[in-house]
Design a protein that fits this description.
Length: 474
C-alpha cells in the first residue's frame, strides 16, 4: 500500500473515531445529529481549523503536482501557515486554473492525488454554464464527511428522522453530488425514506410526480424556490393540497417575498430553509428562526472574502467574492478556491438561541454570484432584488428572466409571467412603477415583456433569472 493511501485511510479512521463523522444509530428524540461537534467551544474550533489547514496544505504540497507548480509560480511557501487566519496568504485558485489543468492533463488534471484517483467512488462535475465543466473526484473519506454534513441539518433542522419521507427534487442526472450518490445516502443514515424524484423531469412527468407527492405523503421536499412554487401552484389548480411540512430551498437564495408566497401555495408547510451549496461540496444552511443566517460547518471548511478587483481581503462589513478551503478533501484538494458568490464579510459566532450551535453564521443571505451583478443607469443590482419586487406584482407567477445586454444598461429588460389573459397599459404601468420603487429606478427605465405561465426560460429544475447576452453582442 502506498504511503499516500495509507495516510488517507488513517485520517478517515481518525475522523470516525474522534466523532467528526457520526455513523448514525442515535435516539430519534435527540435534537442535534452530532451534538459534540455542532456545539464545540469556539477556541476548540479555532484550534481544529488551524490544525486541519496546516495538514491539508502540507498534503497538497507533497502529493499534488498541480499545487506544487501553482504555489511555486506565485511564491507561496506552505511553512507560512501557522494559524487558520493565515489562509489569506495562500494564492487564490480560480475555475480557469482548473480548466487549464484539466485540458492539459485529462481527465481530472494534475490536481488529483494519483494514488487516490484510482480509488474514487464518485465523479462530480459542474454544469459548464460558464465554460468547460470542472470535475471533482470523491473518495471514501470525502463522501463520508459530506454525508455527515448533510445529515447535520437534515436531522437537526428539517426533522429528517425514521418514518419521515423525504423527496429530493434536485438534479438526478450524472455528476451531480447533491443527488442520489450523497444526499440519499445521508437520508438512510438518518433512517428516513428517500425518494429521488429529480426536478429536471417534473415538466415532462408532472402527473406522475404529483401522484407520488400525494400517495407517499412526502414530509420534506428539496428543490429550487421556483419549482417549489410551481408545484404548489399546480396543486392548487388541480384542487389538492401539497403534504409538505418542510421546504428545503436549493439552487439560489430565496427572497423574503418568495418565502411568503411558498407558504401560501403549500398550506401544510411550517418551515422553509435556504440551503446554499456547490457541486464541489461546500455548504451553508439557514438556521430556523434566524432568517437569512446560514451556518457553516467549520470543521469542514474555511471561508474568506476578497475584493474581486484586487484579490485583497475585504474589510469587515464590506461585500466581496467568496473564497473557500475544504479541510477534508484529500483526493482532490480545493484550497482557497473561488466560489464566485457575492457576500458580506460579516460572520456571527454567538451560539444560536434555539440549538446552541457554535459554528459561525453568515450575517445575511448569499444573494448571488459576482458575475450576476449588473447595472442599470449606474444602479448596482442582483436578480434577488428583482425577485422580491416581482413577487409583489399582482397576478404573476413569480417567474422572471432578467436580460443583461451590457455592463451598464439604460433599461432593465425583464420577462415576467402573468396569469392575466390581456395585459393593458395600466397594468404594465403599475407594475413598472412598483418595480422601480422597490429597486431605486424610474418606471421609464424598465421594459417588461409579459408572457403567459410556462414561457420563461428554465434549465432543468432551475429558473434562469439571469440571462447574460453581453458575450453574444460583442
Amino acid at each position: 500500500m502506498s504511503s499516500s493511501l495509507s495516510y488517507y485511510e488513517s485520517i478517515h479512521r481518525e475522523l470516525k473515531e474522534e466523532g467528526y463523522i457520526n455513523s448514525g444509530n442515535i435516539n430519534p428524540s435527540e435534537r442535534l445529529w452530532n451534538r459534540k461537534i455542532m456545539t464545540m467551544k469556539r477556541e476548540d474550533l479555532d484550534k481544529l481549523k488551524s490544525f486541519r489547514l496546516k495538514r491539508i496544505v502540507k498534503w497538497a504540497w507533497e502529493n499534488s503536482e498541480f499545487y506544487r507548480k501553482f504555489w511555486k509560480s506565485r511564491g507561496f511557501d506552505p511553512e507560512v501557515i501557522k494559524d487558520w487566519r493565515d489562509v489569506t496568504k495562500i494564492p487564490i485558485l480560480r475555475k480557469d486554473d482548473l480548466r487549464n489543468d484539466l485540458s492539459a492533463n485529462p481527465p481530472f488534471g494534475s490536481i488529483m492525488v494519483p494514488e487516490l484517483a484510482r480509488r474514487i467512488r464518485f465523479v462530480g462535475a459542474t454544469s459548464g454554464s460558464t465554460g468547460m465543466p470542472t470535475f471533482q473526484g470523491w473518495g471514501a473519506l470525502e463522501l463520508d464527511y459530506f454525508e455527515e454534513a448533510q445529515a447535520r441539518y437534515l436531522w437537526s433542522f428539517a426533522g429528517v428522522k425514521p418514518t419521515v419521507v423525504y423527496a429530493n427534487y434536485l438534479n438526478m442526472s450524472g455528476f451531480y453530488s447533491w443527488g442520489p450518490p450523497l444526499v440519499e445516502t445521508a437520508m438512510w443514515r438518518c433512517g428516513a425514506t428517500a425518494i429521488a424524484g429529480g426536478g429536471e423531469t417534473y415538466f415532462s412527468w408532472k402527473n406522475r410526480h404529483n401522484l407520488i407527492f400525494r400517495l407517499w405523503k412526502v414530509d420534506v421536499l428539496a428543490t429550487t424556490p421556483w419549482l417549489h412554487r410551481l408545484i404548489g401552484e399546480e396543486a392548487k389548480k388541480e384542487g389538492w393540497e401539497t403534504p409538505f411540512k418542510v421546504l428545503l430551498l436549493h439552487g439560489g437564495a430565496a427572497a423574503k417575498n418568495t418565502k411568503e408566497k411558498l407558504f401560501q401555495v403549500h398550506p401544510n408547510a411550517k418551515l422553509a430553509i435556504s440551503v446554499w451549496g456547490t457541486t464541489d461540496g461546500h455548504m451553508a444552511i439557514e438556521v430556523p428562526g434566524l432568517d437569512g443566517q446560514l451556518v457553516v460547518w467549520e470543521d469542514m471548511e474555511i471561508f474568506d472574502i476578497v475584493d474581486p478587483k484586487t484579490d485583497e481581503p475585504s474589510n469587515e462589513g464590506e461585500r466581496g467574492e467568496l473564497i473557500a478551503t475544504l479541510l477534508n478533501h484529500f483526493t482532490m484538494p480545493l484550497i482557497r478556491y473561488s466560489l464566485g458568490d457575492y457576500v458580506k464579510n460579516e460572520f456571527l459566532t454567538d451560539p444560536d438561541p434555539t440549538y446552541g450551535i457554535t459554528h459561525m453564521r453568515f450575517s445575511e443571505p448569499i444573494p448571488g454570484r459576482v458575475e450576476w451583478m449588473f447595472k442599470v443607469k449606474g444602479k448596482l443590482l442582483l436578480p434577488i432584488y428583482i425577485e422580491d419586487a416581482v413577487d409583489e406584482i399582482p397576478d404573476t407567477t413569480g417567474m422572471f428572466n432578467v436580460f443583461v445586454y451590457d455592463n451598464d444598461m439604460d433599461k432593465l429588460k425583464i420577462r415576467i409571467e402573468t396569469v392575466k389573459g390581456n395585459v393593458d397599459a395600466l397594468y404594465d404601468k403599475k407594475a413598472r412603477e412598483l418595480l422601480a420603487n422597490r429597486i431605486g429606478l424610474n418606471s421609464d427605465d424598465i421594459d417588461i415583456e409579459w408572457v403567459e405561465p410556462g414561457k420563461t426560460i428554465w434549465t432543468g429544475y432551475k429558473l434562469q433569472v439571469f440571462i447574460d447576452q453581453r458575450k453574444k453582442n460583442k
